[in-house]
Amino acid sequence: MSVNRANMQRHKIYMKYKEVVAKLKIGIIGAVPIEVELLLSKMNIQQKVIIADIPFFTGMIKQIPVVVCISKIGTVNAALASTLLIENFNVESIVFNGAAGALVTDVNFGDVIVSSGTQFWNVNYTAIDVPISQYPDLRISVYKANKRLIHLAKNSQEQVDFCIEIGKVLTANTFVADVELRDKLRMKFNGLCVETEGAAVGQVTSLNKIPYIVFRGISDFSNKNSPKDINIFGKLAADNAQKVTLNVLAQLC
């Protein structure tokens, strides 16, 4: 193949990619494959793109243009995925769905927490008179979720066989498996569940003025049984969180 023909072929591929990207509206993130498997099974996938070792799947779910990605676990990975969704795919809002550990005991395995907001529980600059969870140059404690998306998620209750609760989601790069720490986090921050990505998505979307929301299925109760429970109930939790996402998308059609 000549250089000109090769360049023309690359240009055609780029233009096709650009055309798909231009139509995308909603970005959806899961940290691990199990947190997007259900979505991908319902998706008309048009293209797979890998950027910074993160796979992005572009296409349609319920007639809604979406891009679904697998960020990997942790705040830095979630922030990177959110930034790439905004800058490379022009999404208008971001949904993060996955599993989480409960901070309360009046929920069941597989119930879903819809974020009213997200908060870092381990960001601490109080020694220099900065309020807990805030950074010296970013004075936000709680990254509030989009009210319309909260409303649509709550509307999903009639369509599912598990409970949907609305409340704060706490974030840190820590797997909580200790009742004493769990109860301390509940008392101090008034959160309903704890995980490792949500507030990072909240921070990036807040800075970029992009609506966002987090859906977290309960996989464990942040106690000594959590390492075992997440292996047993992780798929149920992830699937139920994705079911809420699918119901929200259905209401947007």
Descriptors for this entry?
single chain; 253 residues; alpha/beta; Rossmann fold; five-stranded mixed β-barrel; 7 helices
Q: Topology, please?
A:
Elements: H1 3-23, E1 26-30, H2 37-41, E2 44-51, E3 54-61, E4 64-70, H3 75-89, E5 93-102, E6 112-120, E7 143-144, H4 147-155, E8 164-171, H5 179-189, E9 191-195, H6 198-207, E10 212-220, H7 226-252
Parallel strand pairs: 1-4, 1-5, 5-10, 6-8, 8-9
Antiparallel strand pairs: 2-3, 3-4, 5-9, 6-7, 6-10
Domain Nucleoside phosphorylase: 25-249
InterPro entries: MTA_SAH_Nsdase, Nucleoside_phosphorylase_d, Nucleoside_phosphorylase_sf
Enzyme class: hydrolase
Task: Describe the structure in your own words.
The chain is of the alpha/beta class and 253 residues long. The protein has one domain: 3-Layer(aba) Sandwich (Rossmann fold). The chain has seven helices and ten strands. It has a five-stranded mixed barrel, surrounded by five helices. Helix 5 links the parallel strand 8 and strand 9. Helix 3 runs parallel beside helix 6 and helix 4 crosses helix 7. The longest helix is centred in the C-terminal third of the chain and has 27 residues. The radius of gyration is 19 Å and the shape is globular. The N and C termini lie far apart (44 Å). The relative contact order is 0.20. About 5% of the residues have low confidence. One of its GO terms (molecular function) is adenosylhomocysteine nucleosidase activity. Its EC number is 3.2.2.9. Pfam families: PNP_UDP_1. InterPro entries: MTA_SAH_Nsdase (IPR010049), Nucleoside_phosphorylase_d (IPR000845), Nucleoside_phosphorylase_sf (IPR035994). Pathway: Amino-acid biosynthesis; L-methionine biosynthesis via salvage pathway; S-methyl-5-thio-alpha-D-ribose 1-phosphate from S-methyl-5'-thioadenosine (hydrolase route): step 1/2.
